[in-house]
Structures are given as structure tokens and as C-alpha cells.
Amino acid sequence: MKEKLLDLLACPTCGGDILLAYASKYDDREIIEGVLTCKKCDREYKVVRGVPRFADLGKIEEDKAATAENFGWQWTNFTQEDPKYNEQFLGWLQPVKKEFFEGKVILEGGCGKGRHTKLAAEWGATEVVGIDLGDGVESAFALTRNMPNTHIVQCDIFKLPLKKAFDYAFSVGVLHHTPDPKRHSFHSPER
Predict the structure, then answer these.
(1) Alpha helix positions (H), 29-123
(2) pLDDT over 90 for what percent of the chain?
(3) Is 32 inside any structural domain?
């Protein structure tokens, strides 16, 4: 986790600012192990293997946990990249073009192995935050950790630990896997 991610984080419960309580392990510019704390409600969240963890799969609804586990396995076992991803990604986001990302702060809801997070960063986004509930965050972090403008966060898409600081958000192939896609939308707590 890069320290500048703190500027974008908020407590998923109360909306308070997130602070770095301590970092027990750094690797270059990344916090690999540490603890984050909410300035407002004092809740603590761990940073494990470079990823801030705002969700515990053992404590979430069974259907969400099962989906996260299945996709997490997929994204940690099938990490290959393909040049076709660029074209495919832009096709899903039509009419958005590569140039659109330039200078923007971007949120990807459901980043899986991080391939779209990486593309948005390569296309000039100022910052890109990829979120996912499952273990795919491990692959996404490995893929993007050397990019200065990328951040990976493990969280529930319905309880975002983020401030309303984004210019653009996208979610590809995720919301229809949620328990009730018609009823839900992903959003941050009211502040």
C-alpha cells in the first residue's frame, strides 16, 4: 500500500478519515504489513501483503463469500495477460477512449487480477484504485505494485472505504454476481 492512498480512504462504517497507525514492514515505497485506524471511530484495519483489508470473508454474508472465493481462486490461478485486453476493455466502456483516463482519479469496482486497473493507470490516470472482495487482490497487487499511480484494496463493494474523490468509476462483469443487483449500487457511506 502506498501512503498516498490514505488521501482517498475513509472508514466504511462511519466515513471517518483513515490514518496509518503503524507499518511493521515496508518494501521500497509500499507498506507491506501494518495497521490503519479510523480517526473518528477508532476501528482498525490491517494491511496484509501490501493490501489494506476492509473485509473479512469469514464475517460476510455466505453468498457474497462464496462468490468472492470462487472468483478469488480464478484470479490467483489465471494471471496471464493478453494484448486483446486493451481492445476488449474499451469495447465494454464505449464510448470511453484511452485519452479519457488522462489526469483522472479512477475507481474500479471488482478489479479481479488487476488487468483493467493496470490499463487505466497506463493510460494516464492520476490515481487508480482497484477494489475486490476476494483473493484476486493478491494477483492485482502483484501486477500493479510497481506502478506509482495504482492502489489495490480488499473490501465489500457495498461498503466502500473511500472518500468521494473519484472522477470516474467503472465495474466490468461484477454487479450481476452480487446477491441482488437490482436493489444495490456501490457507494461510499454518507458524509
Answers:
(1) 62-77, 84-92, 115-122
(2) 61
(3) no
